[in-house]
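Incident log, structure service

09:12 report received: a user says their structure output differs between two submissions of the same chain.
09:20 pulled the input from the user's history:
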Amino acid sequence: MATHDDEVTGRSGTVTVRIRGGELPGEVQVSIRGGTESFIAYSDQEIARNETVLVYRDRGDRAVDVTPYPEGRVLQDGL
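09:34 re-ran on a clean worker, output below:
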C-alpha cells in the first residue's frame, strides 16, 4: 500500500535531476517540514534541471506529479 504525503501537494520545488517526461521521472527538492526533501517527480513534459515546478499530486511512496511553475505568479510555498 502506498504511503501518501498530503503536505507536499501545492508546494513549489526545484528540479535536481532532469524530468524526461511521461513515465520517465526525474527528481525534485521541496522545502517542507522545516527542511528540504527529495521526491521522484513525473511530468507530462520534459523539465530541465534547476527549473521551478509546482507539485499538483502526490503519487505516494515519495513520488509526485509536477508541472512547470506558472509564470507571473509569486513563488510561495504551499500555494
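09:41 both user submissions now match this output. Likely a transient worker issue. Closing.
09:42 reviewer note: The chain has a mean pLDDT of 90. The longest strand covers residues 52-60.
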